[in-house]
Design goal:
Number of helices: 11
Low-confidence stretches: none
Largest sheet: 5 strands, mixed
Length: 342
Amino acid sequence: MQEAEYVERAKQRIREILDTEHAVVRAELEARISEAGFPGSGLNIDPHHATRAFNDLRWRNREILQTNAETTRGEYPVATIQPTNQRRRTTAITKAAQRRRLLYGRYLGWAHGDKRRPNGLLGPAGEQAVRAGLLESGRFQPEPPDASEVSKLLNTELPGPLDSGGYSITFTNGLPQPPITVLIEVKNIRSWVYPQSAEPYQLLHKSCILQQTHPEQPILPVLICRKAHPTTFWMAKQLGFMVIQLRTQFAGAVDEKALNEVRTELHFEDLRFGSEASTTVRDRFRDVIPLHGPTYAAAWQKTAANPELVHSITQLRYAREDRDQVMSEFRKHVKRAGHRGF
């Protein structure tokens, strides 16, 4: 299917959603379009198609939808998406928008925190679930015994702490091989991680520095997130890092009734109470990394030895402006390094 057809399908879904829901927030719109499947077809429309459809309707076809931003009681600005034509449904749209602002403002409070919990609830909950999964794997030796944050590996100070780190022992013909040093970052966020997203490059930059300091040491960066686009997995395989997709967003010790309202009404179907051990992380570190880790670590050694790739990774960690241009150059460097690209 051509990209234009995906975008047209996304536009159709936006119209349908606004007809029935009256008002939504962007994250909800993405969840309803990209994570629920296209009605009657089982076809998912990826978030970048949904974004293009939304922007087209917003800027080129304003008779379809409009946005209205207001600040919630928690002082979070929340923009709701509403039909432009509100004839005979103004009251329904107003009520729906108020409800969405309340629910999404509640979610943002969990995500971003407040004076009492400056780190929020979602980030720490995701880290706790990952750390518990690492310990349950039985095949990972964390640097701190509790698999908590680490700022130094292989006696090297990193440019910022990792969410976790340690060592994985692999075996060949029953014989132990040199340990793989594993760097771990956890991104317990709603948005999908794409190659152009900011999230991978904090991890990759730290991993470049550690690999260049210890060029002979097998090193494996591991990015753990709720959801990643397939192109991110392609990039990871080519460059030599692993992506673990949780398909769950851990919320921590929030009020369960409040969480159920957010999950149901905003369509955040994988939002879960608590921070119990991630079985996905446990299984990947127990079964997958010991088997495939050496191959990925060998690829990462080549990446970290390539000055063009390292330069682009460093830029992408810190770039705020001209990010698209930096990403375009990075893709060129990846292909010059002999990869298919992503």
